[in-house]
Amino acid sequence: MDNVKYTNLPDKNGYYGAFGGRLVPPLLEKALQEVEIAFREIKDDIGFQEEYRRLLNDFVGRPSPLYYARNLSEELGGAQIYFKREDLNHTGAHKINHCLGEALLAKRLGKKKVMSETGAGQHGVALATAAAVVGLDCEIHMGEIDIAKQADNVKRMKLLGAKVVPVKVGGRSLKEAVDSAFGVYMQEYQDTFFAIGSVVGPHPYPEMVAYFQSIIGREVRQQIQEKLHRLPDALVACVGGGSNALGIFYDFLDEENVRLIGVEPSGKGLESGRHAATLTLGKAGAIHGMQTYVLQEEDGSPSPVHSIASGLDYPGIGPFHAYLKEMGRVEYVSADDKEAAAAFVKTSRREGIVPALESSHALAHAYRLAPTLDKEQAIIVNVSGRGDKDIDFVAQEFPEIAFEGRLK
Known about the structure:
four-stranded parallel β-sheet; 43% helix; 14 strands
């Protein structure tokens, strides 16, 4: 890793090493070039940046706190555990950070509508919220399975004025929602801005979403130095497409003494075939306009995937993550459904914080890691969303959890 400057990526063609790019039909090339040019402009546009910061501060409630999880740190022993509280953002997750940026960019381009996919519904709610506050129409595509699991978020999207399109084909989850939304976008790109919900897709989306999410890591750097007067020893975040992880990792990519750990969903177990551990068991391929790691069938088509967390239920991964794996800069591990559910309950009971099932994967690994480290060391976990949306599903999926007792 000598002399590598990760924050200089991607290259001018949107590649992170061998991963990334813009693999789209000619019809969309012009539309994506328009987005890229506008993105370059807003990075140096004082008016845009002031409006974006105003919304982050006054509307979202940034900076989000860095919380010392004293009870769990004492119970587990070893490293001290801190939570980056993205669950306290308006709309309840980190997704609002990039949704506001993309909605402002869409308005700058004169678009009438923003559209996207959603899995757990947090991106859909955040985009519907951003569209409402900046004055745009909104359309969200969502798999039928996820609509059933996340009924409350569907109601919130509709209340906020969004049109929710149920996707009834294939696995009826996140991958199919992306396919559906892209299909409509190809017909409506002149008046519509596609607001991708993670660091995935064709260039410039992986770079752009990481840019808007990097506010998380910048805040963490300042906050932990105020508390400990030094950098953390490890950062831990869940990884589906990879936006919350890159958000907290980005400002530390060139800090070689800070361990960066991404936690994928191993679902029912890596040997079961029912998981979404793309970086653990996937291989290089193309999906949704990018070259990256993909969980694939023998014929090269994306494999069906599974996770208890709808927001992690994706057979691909952001191309920057694929590159970081190849370079060995980030450690990618996994947690299964039951471990995530146990962390969901443990965090709720010990710290009075109900985390999203997505975030619970990162928490599960942090609880494994902390006892192996010294008490002078510090782990920061990105609690990327709140878990109100998941309580009924956990109770239904894991009947062995008695909310008065412990996970058996």
